[in-house]
Amino acid sequence: MTNRQPRIEGIAAPLPRANVDTDQIIPIIHLISVTRDGMGKGLFSDWRYGPGGAEKPDFVLNRAPWRNATLLVAGANFGCGSSREHAVWALREFGIRAVIASGFASIFYDNCFKNGLAPVIIAEAATVTLQGIAERHPAEPVIVDLESGRVRAAEGFDVPFTMDPSRRRDLIEGLDEIGASLAKSEEINAFHAADRLRRPWVYSHKPS
I want to staple 153 with a disulfide (CB 3.0 to 4.6 A). Which of 135, 142, 175, 179 is the partner? Predict the structure, then answer.
């Protein structure tokens, strides 16, 4: 990840369901691989496809313009259930860059930051309002402004959200955990240099 993204903007798909668990996000049948390839096709597959793999026309991500959504507006406790990181992979591979909800399961929430997906928490009443706006103005973009900590949409919708500052920075800078560590290489090198002077015996040890 290298591109700076101070804000995420795009079509928002309304998914007014609470307690969406990771098995619904990516059913276990799609977990035969440890790579991300193809995970997007399996996203919500039990809801998106019928027998024989035909799309269910009433599911939001099978309808225009939401089949090109980059944001998802969900219900409370999104991502509950198992700890499978594949759920975040599937959302990212489909093209979702932010999920807006009134709450997330803790492990899913942590996995989002590890994979560059923004989990945005706003009040439950605000999520219901935003879902309605997304239905009424499907082609109007929703904006998640990571720098100002606000979500904006049509009809004058403008609400704040809070996020850990370091995690917010990593999303803006496009850094995963490794990238965030490498960004502190100067501090790490300085620590090693000082530690080498303070404890030279640690660095002079030669394995037998």
Answer: 142
